[in-house]
Structure formats: C-alpha cells, structure tokens
Amino acid sequence: MNQEICLVATLPSTPRGARAARALAVAQLAEHRLPFEDAAQVVAELAANAVTHGKVPGRDFRLALRIVPGPTLRIEVSDTRREFGPPVAAEAPELGAESGRGLVLVAALATRWGTDHGPAPLKTVWAEMDLASPISPDRGFHDPVGRSPVPHDA
What we know:
3 helices; 25% strand; disordered C terminus
C-alpha cells in the first residue's frame, strides 16, 4: 500500500503524553495543509484511552499519522496492553456516567475505526478519516485552542 508518513512519535503514557499527541497531530496536519479539527479530537480520545487503559509502567505509547490512498488520514495509537482492547462497537454510556464517551466520539468523527493486534503485546487502535469529503471552509483550519489560524487557500 502506498502511503505517506506524516508523523510517528513515541510518547510517555501520561496525561502530558496524551496532550502532546494531540498537539503534535495538529502541528503536523496544519503543516501538510490538512484539516485537523476532527482529527485532533480523535487523536486526543485514542491517546487518552492508551494512557488510561493501555498503560504499562515503564512503557510508552506510539502515535502514527499516515495519508493513504483515498485520500484518507489513518490515525494509529499503539500501546502494550493487548488484553484491554476497546469494545467491538462503541456504545453510549449510561446517563450520568462520568466517562465512556471517547469511542462514541471516535465512531462519529471517523469513517471507520478498529483494533489490530500484534506482535505481542502490541495493540493498535486506529481510525480513518476521509479527506476527500467536503468540509466547511471554516472548519478544521483554525486551532480549536485559540491559537493563530493556519493560512489556507480559499
């Protein structure tokens, strides 16, 4: 499969590492002049899950962003806690639950998502986002945290 690697980064399995994954994704996608708002949210959710559910003391998690034919953005977050994979289908949490919405959000934003295993003990949760879909000219080119907008062609 022909693919362009945008980013591969190994980050600590800490909340700071999860925040760094999101920031790296935004910077890299903006540099490639790609919409990043939804992708940043997907990265944030998958990285938070890796840090929360996939953490093994002394082991990091990996973030990979790839552009594959379509064009499609493939987001991969890998950790070493294979036995704690996400559910097959993302279901909304019970009313009043304080967590459990991350994969529902990933499912809503991504075209497809899933989990790959191997080699042991590796688990990779991935999401793909169709870059050919029409988006609003205002959507995805401004940093949602309020930094300067990224210039783009209208």
